[in-house]
Amino acid sequence: MSPPAPLLLVEGIRKSFFGVEVLHGVSFTLGRGEALGLVGENGSGKSTSMNILGGVHQPDAGTMLVEGQPYRPADPGAAIAAGIAFIHQELNLFGNLTIEDNLFIDNFPRRGGLPFINRSAIRKSTQDHLAQVDLDLAPTTPVARLSQGERQLVEIAKALSRNARLIIFDEPTTSLTRREVARLFGLVAKLKARGIGIIYISHALDDVMAVCERVTVLRDGAVVGTGTSRDLGVPRLISLMVGRSIETIFPQRTAPPRPSDVLAVTNLGQPGVAEAITFTIRAGEVVGLAGLMGSGRSELARMIFGLDPFRSGTIAVEGVELRDPTPARAMAAGIAFLTEDRRGEGLLMEAPIADNAVLASLRSVANALGLIDGKRVAAASRTMAQKVRLSTDRVEDTLVKHLSGGNQQKVVIGKWLMRAPRLFILDEPTRGIDVGAKQEVYRIINALVEAGSAVLLISSEIEELMGLSDRILTISRGELTGGFDRLDFDREAIMTAAAVGADHAKVSS
């Protein structure tokens, strides 16, 4: 007896745009109840492959089979009808409508043959599907009131309402809290137990390893490796994605930190947020800050930059106390702050690159009357684009929303570089960007500290902290719990101190 056909078989898919082939015979399989990670840098072919699977594009060559039957969707509607569902990074929900209306927006059940919506049927069905994703909310709840994690669960419930047998997740954890991530992973496990196949696309490789049984790696439009998560491992994945070993990802610095302190934080305290925090950062030094979600790491950064208040303690920049900090005063003192929410707080998404580039330095592009000079804006933004190696030189007419995540982050960093900061606070600077873009961010950080600036680096990726930092401090429940010099970096010890505290750890401040 022959084995059952896989849930999905993709074989030899090729696709060209304007005479340029972008997919070169992509092949992979997915079994029932299996999660397959699909990873690669931006431009590797992930999106094109998924758009073909979802009926957005038609392949030039190759075959696709779903449960052994030929599959070639003419449009996204045909993909949905075949049981293929997408959970996009930018969730496709209407905030002004209720959960039940979002679930049935294009397929409202009717009362018999009459043109009236069957509200009771909608409500009952919505309740059933919400229960399947463990979301205890009324079907009449407006989506605008939901957290990002709850909205994602509504999207999954919507997929289940359409009898999805294959669900594709695109960067599903980018905007989620750690608790929401754990909840999502638990739900993915339940979906797999029901026989639903999962394609999981993410730049967070640790998440891929945690969720997926197998991983397929794309580079330059071709599959360069497939294997089990256990056999591949994160270092091997990175090597396959970028074509070089992980040891070459982080730039090496030869100049040691200077003896002078750029930042001195002394007994900084805010009830329920920070408890007598004391540390320094020297010129030419990167100090990493490791902590779990809710540990107080971002709150500490916000207090230093004057966004959040503190009740006790002092902050000094190059020996001068920053009294009653506000963002304007912090900026005047030479502090720059890269927020973890680049879309919501770091950029004007509907504005062009040039306008975003000068947001933090408007006075430098104003004329004698205080009016913004368009020529100065254009010149300054072009200089910024070259400095951060932006992928486009059309800074005046390219909207930021049309850039990749990596290039958006370069714009955020670039706008602060124009102020030549003495201290750069970076909160999750590489979240949601690919390995190649990460390396560009690392290059910029390296150039900053070699020029004598100081960097406070907050990251959830321990490898990133260890690869870039001269020292790592750990924070838990608003207290510094450990300090590690570069020669003493130990992944397990750092994670333990960040997770539960380490009374025995000497805080190297």
What can be said about this structure in brief?
The chain is an alpha/beta fold and 509 residues long.
Describe it.
With 509 residues, the chain is α/β, with parallel strands linked by helices. The protein has three domains: 8-248, P-loop containing nucleotide triphosphate hydrolases (Rossmann fold); 250-334 and 421-509, P-loop containing nucleotide triphosphate hydrolases (Rossmann fold, 3-Layer(aba) Sandwich); 349-411, no CATH class. Helices cover 33% and strands 24% of the residues. The chain has 17 helices and 20 strands. It has helices spanning 46-53, 76-81, 99-103, 119-132, 148-161, 178-193, 205-211, 229-242, 297-304, 327-332, 342-346, 353-357, 374-387, 405-417, 435-450, 462-468, 491-500, and strands spanning 8-17, 20-30, 35-39, 61-66, 69-70, 84-87, 166-170, 197-201, 214-219, 222-228, 261-270, 274-282, 286-290, 312-317, 320-321, 335-338, 423-427, 454-458, 471-476, 479-485. The strands form four sheets. It has a six-stranded mixed beta sheet with strand order 6-7-8-3-9-10, with helices on both faces. Strands 16-17-18-13-19-20 form a six-stranded mixed beta sheet, with helices on both faces. Helix 14 (405-417) packs parallel to helix 15. The chain is globular and about 75 Å long.
